[in-house]
Amino acid sequence: MSLSSELCKTMYRDMWRIRLFEEEANRQTSLGSVVGALHMYCGEEAVAVGVCSNLRDDDYVLGTHRSHGHCLAKGAESHRMMAELFGKATGTCAGKGGSMHIADFSLNMLGANGIVGAGIAPATGAALASKLRGTDQVSVCFFGDGAAARGTFHEGIGLGALWKLPVVYVCENNQYQQWVPRMNVAVLDSVADMAGSYAIPGVSVDGQNLVEVYEVAGEAVERARKGGGPTLIEARTYRFYGHSLGDEEQYRPAAEVEEWRTNRDPITTFQSTMMEQGWLTEEEDTQIQNEVKDEITEAVRFAEESPFPTPDSVTTDVLAPVQEVA
Ligand SMILES: Cc1ncc(C[n+]2csc(CCOP(=O)(O)OP(=O)(O)O)c2C)c(N)n1
Ligand SMILES: [Mg+2]
To answer: Whose CA is nearest to atom 17 of ligand 1?
Structure first.
């Protein structure tokens, strides 16, 4: 394995940042502090972190309705994200995006999206813009297995492949589409197999294995950056919570959930790997987890103390400024 222990520690910390941020956001939703619905990413952390750790600051990311992890992994500050969930003016979208439309344009994280599959076309468009401008920026689009059944998937990948655009399509196959098991509605078991229709590489990875995701994504990002065109990655993963808060989860067996939580947790799996390799001591582990806990406590304090947007700002930050055409 070619990873440095420093990078591994950073990625390990980032997975904890996502886990603890979300568990706290979940709690805050129950308390009534978070405005709107909340879709938990817990269990899927290795996908966002493994992919985004290969990206530069100026690369683009588009997400899903389940995108806290994508935003944090792209470098967003947890206190501004928590403020966004609280609908506060100090949030990454000035309090007007919330959980499902969270974005941070300063990091080229172009947004979560409440419409399933709606990030695929803009990610392809951002890649086209990079190509036309002659930059070597790469776009990454995260989407669910449900989104892979939508027209936008085929339209986006079709154009990305035809024009050899610098884009990496990352399907987070968590095996459920809201309350529907994927195999009730899908013909192919692997989403990666659909890449053949567009003559691009398709790779299926264990989404619970951070190192595997990091390495496969690294090859795909490099291919895109060097002009080799798109890759479709399927990361096989699982969400540890229901589809959104209040989901009674009558469609998946409790034993299955328990099995993934106990034996397929990407954080504890990577923790064991690091300890076996001698990259992480118990003291360092405790320190990392305590620092992340403090970070999230501070994020909540910041969100609570921040002001709501004022009524006179209702039309700002919503639409792009109108530009006069000569
Ligand atoms: C176009 C569209 N159809 C339906 C919905 C309702 N909906 C929200 S999330 C979801 C399931 C999406 O499944 P998947 O893409 O696998 O993502 P996951 O929730 O598993 O991360 C559905 C059907 C929607 N938001 N947009
Ligand atoms: Mg799914």
So the answer is: 144
* Integer Cα distance of 11 and 6 in angstroms: 9
Residue 326 pLDDT > 90, yes or no?
Answer: no
53 pocket-lining for ligand 1 (C-beta < 6 Å): no
For the chain, the average pLDDT equals 96
Share of the chain above pLDDT 70, in %: 99
- Residue 39 CA, ligand 2 centroid: distance in Å: 12
| Domain residue ranges in the chain | 5-313
Cα distance between residue 103 and residue 109, in whole Å: 6
Average pLDDT for 157-175: 98
Contacts of 163 by beta carbon, 8 Å cutoff, 6+ apart: 128, 131
What are the structure tokens assigned to 311, written together? 């009524």
CATH code reported for the domain at 5-313: 3.40.50.970
Given a cut of 90, whether residue 303 has pLDDT beyond it is yes
Take residue 82 and report the two structure tokens written for it. Answer: 């928590």
Give the start-end residues of each E strand in 98-256: 139-144, 167-173, 176-177, 180-181, 202-206, 231-236
